[in-house]
Design a protein that fits this description.
Layout (H helix, E strand, L loop, with lengths): L1 H17 L11 H8 L10 H13 L20 H13 L10 H18 L6 E5 L2 H19 L4 H4 L8 E5 L4 H9 L7 E4 L9 H9 L5 E6 L11 H10 L3 E5 L24 E5 L11 E5 L2 H8 L29 H35 L4 E3 L7 E6 L3 H14 L5 E5 L2 E7 L7 H16 L1
Parallel strand pairs: 2-3, 2-4, 4-5, 5-6
Antiparallel strand pairs: 1-7, 6-7, 8-9, 9-11, 10-11
Helix pairs in contact: 1-3, 4-12, 5-12, 6-8, 6-11, 9-10, 12-14, 13-14
The structure holds pyridoxal-5'-phosphate.
């Protein structure tokens, strides 16, 4: 066991040492990867050390340097060294974090991380927190709690009765909602046809006046999904106004803050996320901006009773605790699962309040730096207000040229970023969410982008 883990550590360290200078995109085609990795499954297995080495060699050219400092695609984030170290231990410990008795340490660590997160986000300290696989499941869990909450108010127990014959629930989303809101609604049995879309402004923020108008026409239970951090522009919905309107109508307000919620942890973004604390549930990712390894999402629910009712199950063999102890499964869709609280705990403890704020502010500063450098070139337009870590760039006011520059940049390898469509036009999308990205990385990457613009 020790030799094998030393081998893995050695290979991991080599990868991490090379990471900042690695070609950021993939270097092999699918065919090449298949040729390297597809071997016949043997009857008797192979030597474990040889398997690890073969895996490292076979995977290498198909690995993306997304944990490195010049990956700006999507909002991916890397891994803080302390979070990675805690994650290695999490695997070595192999705890089942489902219930208290299968890992008292995992349970207590999640209790502690819960308190720290509520303080950092400045959300109601009595809210419940679940540790899930990512933003998708955080949205799903929050909306399951919402489904319970709004239907209970009209006397319907959805966990017992299901949705057949239930009073109809009005589902209100922003035109700019993340697709995982839609898939969550699907998994919750609502379907997507029922979604009522509220239009968004030029930055991708839900329009409060349009929400007010729509809610006036709706009767019965309502769930409203707002957003803190648009995946393209980084824009944050006018949360205070939305919360006031939603609550006038007794609606449940959910905020998808997969990355944007981290803005709550820094004074510089206070105003942007003002009123966020008035919502009823929040979804967040730790594997994005907190820079912990996958899989790590966070769901927070004001009404912990609705949260628990939507997730908990009972069985005689589970009644092992006094009730003070946290059984993690009560707050997440999974039962047995990875003890993903350890890396979050380690990251927060190592960073402290100021460290978290500096991580968020640093990425936002780098995003602004990108916009400043690129916009000095007359052929470049910046399409969004830089409020967080997202920059949308367009070249020569041309879809074709914009897409061409993105392709060239991806191929060149200094950095990696992807394209998107913004207000009907092609755009390059830059997301800065890695703890290790420096001002020099941005200079180098911006220079590479401008070089690729030359052809
Ligand atoms: C990334 C993201 C999600 C989905 O999160 P996953 O961790 O990929 O499941 C949901 N909403 C927003 C706004 C996001 O940025």
């Amino acid at each position: 066991m020790t030799d094998l883990l030393d081998l893995a550590r050695d290979r991991a360290n080599s990868f991490l040492k090379e990471l900042p200078d690695r070609h950021v995109g993939p270097r092999a085609t699918r065919d090449e990867l298949v040729a390297a990795l597809k071997v016949p499954l043997t009857d008797d297995g192979e030597d474990p050390a040889a398997v690890i080495d073969a895996l490292v060699q076979g995977a290498d050219r198909g690995l993306i340097a997304c944990a490195g400092p010049r990956y700006f695609g999507f909002v991916i984030g890397g891994s803080l060294p302390v979070a990675l170290a805690a994650d290695w231990l999490t695997s070595a410990w192999d705890q089942n974090a489902g219930i208290y008795v299968t890992s008292p340490a995992a349970s207590v660590v999640e209790d502690v991380a819960r308190e720290w997160l509520l303080e950092l986000f400045d959300l109601p300290r009595t809210a419940s927190v679940g540790f899930v696989t990512g933003g998708q499941m955080a949205n799903f869990t929050a909306l399951a709690a919402a489904r319970h909450g709004v239907l209970r108010r009209v006397g319907w127990n959805v966990e017992e009765n299901g949705l057949t014959g239930a009073p109809p629930v009005h589902l209100v989303v922003s035109a700019a909602s993340h697709i995982t809101i839609h898939s969550s609604m699907r998994m919750l049995g609502f379907g997507t046809r029922a979604l009522r879309k509220v239009d968004a402004d030029e930055q991708g923020r839900m329009r409060a006046d349009s929400l007010r108008e729509l809610l006036r026409t709706l009767d019965g239970p309502v769930i409203v999904c707002a957003q803190a951090g648009n995946v393209n522009s980084g824009a944050v919905d006018p949360l205070r106004a939305l919360a006031e309107i939603a609550h006038e109508h007794d609606a449940w307000l959910h905020v998808d803050g997969a990355f944007g919620l981290w803005g709550r942890a820094t004074a510089s973004k206070r105003a942007l996320l003002d009123g966020c604390e008035l919502a009823d549930s929040w979804a967040n990712d730790a594997h994005k901006w907190l820079n912990v390894p996958y899989d790590s999402g966070i769901v927070i629910v004001r009404d912990s009773a609705s949260h628990r009712a939507s997730m908990t199950v009972t069985a005689e063999y589970l009644e092992q605790t006094t009730g003070v102890e946290r059984d993690n499964f009560e707050w997440a869709p999974e039962f047995s699962r990875r003890a993903r609280g350890f890396p979050i705990y380690a990251a927060l403890r190592a960073l402290g309040r100021n460290g978290v704020a500096a991580l968020i502010d640093g990425c936002c500063d780098r995003a602004r730096q990108f916009a400043d450098i690129l916009s000095r070139d007359k052929r470049v337009s910046i399409l969004n207000d830089i409020v967080l870590n997202q920059v949308l760039v367009r070249f020569g006011d041309s879809d074709e040229l914009t897409r061409e520059v993105i392709t060239r940049v991806q191929r060149e390898g200094t950095c990696w970023l992807a394209g998107t469509t913004w207000q009907g036009e092609a755009a390059m999308r830059i997301s800065v969410s890695n703890w290790s990205t420096t001002a020099e990385d941005v200079e180098k990457s911006a220079a590479a982008i401008l070089r690729m613009l030359e052809g």
